[in-house]
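Standup notes, structure subgroup. Blocker cleared on the adenosine monophosphate input:
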Amino acid sequence: MFVLLFGPPGSGKGTQALALAERLGVPHVATGDIFRKHLREGTELGRRVRAYMDRGALVPDLVTCDLVGSRLSEPDAARGVLFDGFPRSVPQLYWLIGHLGASARTLAAVVNLQVPDDAILARITGRRTCTNCGATYHTVSAPPLPDGSCSRCGAAVVQRKDDVEDVVRDRLVAYGAQTFPCLAELRDRLPVHDLSGEGGIDEVQRRIFASLAL
Ligand code: AMP
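Run returned:
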């Protein structure tokens, strides 16, 4: 089962994706998380994508699709995955349809989390991320330890370069310009579950599970 989770940056899709992937029993494939791991590890790919990510632009489609292609060739992805943040452009969608079609696997469902821009800005500019394990915090609603370290692994918790207001605005522009058309294209092919991403984590999770009859 291949399920796609859409939502603008800061819609809470990363958090929701973890619970949803567990419920579906498929791996969670978040392209943003994979790119960030490469940045942390200073790999060749990390060096190629850093400038795009730092300014809130999409990484080129070829680079992104290559990365997803190799992830999908791993054995645990054979029965399906939950995509979080992929596809994010029309070319990526066509690549995915071609890739899954070739191996006779199909898209099962699409969930689209919707959150207004002002709520997104409040959420993201307060977001802090662990430099080691990637755990996320919020200055007001879920702060890290008092000394600014991660309660999971003890490493430093910082603001992502792309979580500052100007860059968040650019990420929202990229979402509207590239990801909206991708969603529109998907709507012609299968039902898209448009859900509000506002409210508590559990509340949004219930909405998602109910829409997929889980
Ligand atoms: P995210 O954590 O999903 O908000 O992604 C953070 C950044 O990673 C984005 O602003 C892009 O620079 C890059 N990125 C993640 N997923 C994709 C994708 N499917 N296509 C292109 N760039 C991506």
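Discussed briefly. The first strand starts at residue 2 and ends at 6.
Next: hand off to the docking folks.
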